[in-house]
Design goal:
Radius of gyration: 40 Å
Distance between the termini: 114 Å
Structural class: mainly alpha
Number of strands: 0
Shape: elongated
Number of helices: 8
């Protein structure tokens, strides 16, 4: 029965084989080739989340070079099948290459874009920090002056001219 399936598969050129039917090369080798076929079928369970393929810029450029070296559509189709790619990959990559070879082929960072800081905002932040630093320094200076006043009162030393703007 398997020999009949092999003969029908060999007679249909360009058609797909049914699962479990070995290729013509395996049929010519004899019954021993049937032993080399996998006995366990692949796991039909689909993963919970699909893994997205990522292609490097070098890989994209090499595939584009290979595709341009192909002389006819059949060889391009063979290249795409060999690399498990789609023709839309080629069109997208060509468009990216035409926009700018490396910049078009580098993957764009995903997610929310960072807001550019306006120069006025940067200056404003710097002035706030400086203002906080000066306020802390002023509090320390006022504390030292208050201590000096209390010591001069305790010792009975009269203070010289009070500074303009002092609130005592």
């Amino acid at each position: 029965m398997i020999n009949e399936k092999i003969r029908t598969a060999q007679g249909m050129e360009g058609a797909r084989r049914a699962t479990g039917i070995p290729c013509a090369a395996a049929a010519t080798q004899g019954a021993h080739s049937m032993l080399s076929l996998p006995l366990n079928p692949p796991d039909p369970e689909v993963p919970e989340k699909a893994v997205r393929r990522h292609f490097t810029a070098e890989y994209k450029l090499s595939i584009l070079r290979q595709a341009e070296a192909c002389r006819d559509e059949r060889s391009i189709g063979a290249l795409l099948r060999k690399e498990s790619l789609y023709s839309s990959h080629l069109t997208t990559w060509r468009r990216q290459r035409d926009l700018g070879i490396l910049s078009g082929l580098k993957p764009k960072p995903r997610g929310r874009k960072a807001n550019p800081i306006h120069p006025v905002q940067a200056e404003n932040e710097q002035l706030r920090k400086e203002n906080n630093r000066l306020q802390k320094r002023l509090k320390k200076a006022e504390l030292i002056i208050d201590i000096q006043k209390k010591i001069s009162q305790m010792l009975g030393i009269p203070l010289e001219n009070a500074e303009i703007g002092e609130e005592d």
